[in-house]
Specification:
This protein is α/β, with parallel strands linked by helices. The protein has 2 domains: 139 residues, NAD(P)-binding Rossmann-like Domain (Rossmann fold), CATH 3.40.50.720; 163 residues, L-2-Hydroxyisocaproate Dehydrogenase, Chain A, domain 2 (Alpha-Beta Complex). The protein is built from 10 helices and 14 strands. The strands form 4 sheets. Strands 3-2-1-4-5-6 form a 6-stranded parallel beta sheet, sandwiched between helices. A 3-stranded antiparallel beta sheet has the order 7-10-11, covered by helices on one side. Helix 5 links the parallel strand 5 and strand 6. Helix 1 crosses helix 9, helix 4 runs parallel beside helix 5 and helix 6 crosses helix 9. The radius of gyration is 19 Å and the shape is globular. The termini are far apart. The protein binds 1,4,5,6-tetrahydronicotinamide adenine dinucleotide.
């Protein structure tokens, strides 16, 4: 039976995600947005690309949440990017309202779906989605670590002039300046990164990874990255739909792992047909563990700020 994937939000990340899903033959795609006509137009345009690119996924654009019924996976990309003059808490409240509303529709129309959250601020939007869908925690997963990690892999590959596919890296923690690139686990085909690069070059890569999203925002000026974010979300969806059990860094609700409870942060998880099938607790160096816990504390501060808001 063909799989069904719904993508909520037909903007830059959402429409690119829909296209990549079709190109990987992962199933039929429903693209949903509040803007009338836009998801329908983009969906039709992508569907008409199929005969040339050799995919036969249906890509249906819609403004009606009834069309997401029966989805195996729902990817949530709806939300506003920050604009000049807007405070972080403005964005927090507004996107929480949007993701909260979207999550209620998911609960009503696609109650068996696995939800992949992309909207920012990512770790907080995962908590909103978990609360508003009422789904078990294994079925609400945030995309950020795969993106931060692919950026770091590219920077390492550039520095060493090697194929980025051979670079294995791991970035944990909240999706923001407090993310934690775990240098002790980075390798190039099994060779520890620490044997290939001096500390100061590694530190520069870590810093660039932390600011990787901002680097692209500064270049684009009118929005944020979307090709690598969409590819990252699709890598997660693929592992779920094919039950491939990839081990990927994703935002998961922690329950005591790493000494953290009650919030989503990026950790390595096994992704399969049931969603998060296992959370791995890596033995981290003391400073890395402290950094991960500090990152979780920053996520909790935002969660507390949200509790005081109406959304
Ligand atoms: O690593 C990550 N997790 C991220 C997160 C990487 C890249 C982008 N990240 C965040 O994803 C970004 O900060 C935003 O919060 C979302 C979506 O980013 P995108 O670049 O796609 O933003 P757009 O192009 O503005 O698209 C957002 C769409 C737009 O078409 C709106 O009309 C729609 O969301 N939208 C809605 N759709 C459905 N339902 C509701 N309520 C709604 N409100 C807005």
């Amino acid at each position: 039976m063909r799989k069904k994937i719904s993508v909520i939000g037909g903007g830059n990340v959402g429409s690119t995600t829909a296209l990549f899903l079709a190109e990987k033959h992962l199933g039929d795609v429903v693209l949903t947005d509040i803007v009338e006509g836009m998801p329908q137009g983009k969906g039709l345009d992508m569907y008409e690309t199929g005969p040339i690119h050799g995919y036969h996924s249906r890509i249906q654009g819609t403004n009606d949440y009834k069309d997401i019924a029966g989805s195996d996976v729902v990817v949530v990309t709806a939300g506003l990017p920050r604009k000049p003059g807007m405070s972080r808490s403005d964005l927090l409240g507004m996107n929480a309202r949007i993701v909260g509303e979207v999550s209620t529709h998911i609960k009503n129309h696609a109650p068996d779906a696995i939800v992949v959250v992309v909207s920012n601020p990512l770790d907080i939007m995962c908590s909103v989605a978990l609360e508003m869908t009422g789904f078990p925690k294994e079925r609400v997963i945030g995309m950020a670590g795969v993106l931060d990690t692919t950026r770091m892999r590219c920077f390492i590959a550039d520095e060493l002039d090697v194929h980025a596919a051979d670079v294995v890296a791991l970035v944990l923690g909240g999706h923001g300046d407090s993310m934690v690139p775990v240098i002790s686990t980075a390798t190039v085909s099994g060779i520890p990164l620490t044997q290939l690069l001096p500390r100061e070059r590694i530190d520069a890569i870590v810093e660039r990874t932390r600011k990787g999203g901002g680097e692209i925002v500064a270049l684009l000026k009118t929005g944020s990255a979307y090709y690598a974010p969409a590819a990252s979300a699709v890598e997660m969806v693929e592992s779920i739909l094919l039950d491939s059990r990839r081990v990927l860094p994703c935002a998961a609700l922690l329950d005591g792992q790493y000494g953290i409870s009650g919030c989503f942060v990026g950790v390595p998880v096994k992704l399969g047909a049931r969603g998060i099938e296992q959370i791995y607790e890596v033995k981290l160096a003391d400073d890395e563990l402290k950094a991960l816990q500090a990152s979780a504390a920053a996520v909790k501060e935002d969660l507390d700020a949200l509790k005081g808001m109406e959304y």
